[in-house]
Amino acid sequence: MDRFSELHAFCAVATSGGFSAAGRQLGLVPSTVARLVDGLEARLGAPLLNRSTRQVTLTEAGADYFARAQAILASLEEADDAAASAHAGPRGLLRVSAPVAFARLYIAPHLAELQQVHPRLELELMVSDALSDMVGDAIDVAIRIGAADSQPDLVARRLAGHRRIVCASPSYLERRGMPQVPADLLQHECLRFAYTGLSRRPGWRFLKDGETVEIAVRGRLVANSSDVLREAALDGAGIALLPDWLVSADVEEGRLAALLADFESNPGPMDVGVFAVYQPNRRGSGKVRAFVDFIAQRLKDQ
Fold it and tell me: What is the secondary structure of the chain as a DSSP string?
């Protein structure tokens, strides 16, 4: 038991960068955390941490040991989780990250039902359009939109297809005219997505009859939120390239008009979808499986 306490203490220090932060994470005083780590290093006969008054970092041996220790603790947690879930259903804390608009439309409306179906499951939902750090943020499951092979170190389960729509408000089209082919977008104000305000993604890509063309669209608004770009498009600020699951109701009800319908549009690889991704050591987790199955069924129903 002491050895597992040492592993938990060491991994907490390594991930949080300090004994005080690790203590808060574990519910221990810093001196107890330090004693456990000191005992581990003494037993191994090797320094695992570089200590200074400002920060704590891993030694070369510590970095290797950290990776192995994390795998051991994850396997133990997975074994506990599998046994408990098989007996009484999934239980405990599950940390999930998801894009803002997707969480608003396809997770939040079903949280009450999730609580009823899995009453012993605790959910911590982190909502951001930025790419989450699965390890650093201790994420169990992330909902991501992209190509299946974009992150080969993670297990990816496809939840739904993903199609993007070029769209604009009727008021914008009345002022600026309707683009007929992708090249016409060069004469328009295009609302672009980027993960940060400083980055610039490649141009928008279009596929027709087996031929792909990329258009270096321009515009005065770049945002890292699909919701922001949707609102700007509804307000007549320009033409946006947005997921069909986000704007299909707007198109059906006439608030936005779908453009360039003869072309398949996608700014990155053409084979994109909505995926639930998780680390390989979470493959057997009952909590992960229960949540992913639940969301997959809700997407299928909708």
Answer: -HHHHHHHHHHHHHHHSSHHHHHHHHT--HHHHHHHHHHHHHHHTS--EEE-SS-EEE-HHHHHHHHHHHHHHHHHHHHHHHHHHHHH---EEEEEEE-HHHIIIIIGGGHHHHHHH-TTEEEEEEE-SSPP-TTTTT-SEEEEEEEGGG-TTSEEEEEEE--EEEEE-HHHHHHH----SGGGGGGS-EEEE-SSSS--PPPEEEEETTEEEEE----SEEES-HHHHHHHHHTTS-EEEEEHHHHHHHHHTTSSEEE-TTSEEESS-SSEEEEEEE-GGGTT-HHHHHHHHHHHHHHHH-
